[in-house]
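Hello Y.,

Per our agreement to keep a running log of every chain we model this quarter, I'm adding this entry. I've kept the format consistent with earlier entries: sequence first, then predicted structure.
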Amino acid sequence: MTTKNQQITKFKGVILFLHGYTQNSSIFYAKTSALRKKILKLGYKCKYLNGPYVLQPSDLPTTDSLSKFGSSDNQDVTYRGWWIKNDHTNDSIDLDKSIDSIRNYIENGILIPDDESQNKEISKESEEDKELPIVGLIGFSQGASFAGLIAENFQNLFNTKNPLKFVILYSGFKLDTSKSSKNDKYNSYYDEELNPDLKYLHVYGELDTVVDEVRSLSLYNITKPKSDLLKHPGGHFVPNSKLYIDQVVNWIQSVTKDDNEKVTNQPGKGDVNEKKSKLDTKDDIESLLDMMEGFGKA
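Predicted structure for the entry above:
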């Protein structure tokens, strides 16, 4: 007879969580607690990785704006990113260090701590964990942009046994890879033929003032054939109401099951307006109040 604890430890795979700009793994861990609990029940292990760049005061937005980035104004926080902005733009960036940090985790099980002073305590994955396949990526803001860039080419970049099954992008955006941006060396990363079976879920807030709708749809528009879209009536944050978490979790179930198995209550394909989530009148008042409380917050 299998006990409850034994069931929890028998994971089917790993999902990597990539935090946003001016966040770190601990902040993102706290802000996605409800989502993580539901994912664990599906049998997937959640691993939160840190961007390798420690942000300096000159890299940060104003204190008043930090909350808009889903961050914290706690002075003891080590703010991190997946790339450093040049003159507060995303032009001429270098992602090699971030790609290497993902590779170092996958190949050696090394996790970068939140605070550089904790380097002596860098943890390593168990051999059992290292054998689990990485099935998906979940990113927020800059972390979502980075996830969207490495997703198609994930198996080749990191020499994994299997390609990714899905990527979920909260307030994500496509990196500008035009020649004028000087990021054109990353243009080939968005080649959909690299992983034709990869599925995307793009989630964004209608009141997001950090990554607006046009930017949020930039990656969706080039991945439409294998993408779903979910809007929420909030700002620049990961919605934590039961309504939206259930839809995301149901979507994960749908893309990790056999093609002939159907899952209900998942975001559907079609026109953007058709994909907008509609509140079911049977949803409890607590979920609605939770979402309303989050309006404009990060």
